[in-house]
Amino acid sequence: MGYTLAIDTSAGTSVALTRSGAPIAEYNDSSNMKHAEGIGAAIADVLAQGGVKAKDVATVVVGRGPAPFTGLRVGIAAAMMFAEGAGAKLFGVVSLDAIALEALSDEAIAAQVAAGVPLLITADARRQEVYWGLYSGLSKSGAPICIEGPGVIKPAALAELMQQRGVQPIEVSATVFATRLSQVFDAQVIDGAASQDVSALYLREPDAVPSPGKKVSG
In the chain, what's the furthest Cα-to-Cα distance? Predict the structure, then answer.
């Protein structure tokens, strides 16, 4: 089996090289700025750490967000270009799924979720909002099971929504690690749920919009 390159720029920049789900190399930068300047070097770094050439990568997995417009599109564009250049297959994974997998690797959290307590994954959406997804655990192959979301909402409104649902979830907000993104993909392959949809989950309009231009008087 060939190597998998996983890329996520939904918050910081995370790039990982894996094989059969096992991590080989990973690069993580928590900064949510200058994704475009760092993504090329990050990819080169993990390939060099693994002693792997681009042509050895069979699969590219990219985080689809949800995330703000600018950073997210950098990772998706980089994944598309790398996959095309390397002749690799390209797949997309919801970034919140990777956080859910990381959270459920904690035995205490996993035990509570197994007992019926849902897992609420949140991430900073700026504008005093959060991205969110509600999870009920893992499939038999280990893929996070999202039962509601992803969405974007004010924290107070999210708390009210959970109250309306009659649930008191375990809330986790954490970093997306590309290795986890790759592992989610591997589990989805077994489930027959892997997706080649790499469209960005912005969930709202970008902050920057084109100018309407000058009005021309008649």
Answer: 71
13 neighbors 63 (Cβ within 8 angstroms): no
Structure tokens at 31: 């900064």
Kindly state the tokens that stand for 92: 């997309």
For the chain, give every domain's residue range. Answer: 3-95+176-191, 97-172
Distance of alpha carbon 103 from alpha carbon 98, whole angstroms? 9
What is residue 214's three-state secondary structure? Answer: coil
CATH class of 3-95+176-191: alpha beta
189 phi and psi angles, rounded to 5 deg: -60, -45
Helix (H, G, I), strand (E, B) or coil at 110: helix
Please give the Cα distance from 82 to 43 (Å, whole number).
9
Residue pointed to by tokens 């990819």: 43
Quick check: pTM over 0.85? yes
**Residue 74 · residue 62 · CB < 8 Å:** no
Cα–Cα distance measured from residue 181 to residue 186, given in angstroms and rounded to the nearest whole number? 9
Output the CATH code of domain 97-172.
Answer: 3.30.420
pLDDT, tens digit, 9 for 90 and up, residues 110-165: 999 999 999 999 999 988 999 999 999 999 999 999 999 999 999 999 999 999 99
For residue 214, what are the CA distances in angstroms to 116, 208, 210, 217, 218?
Answer: 58, 18, 12, 9, 13
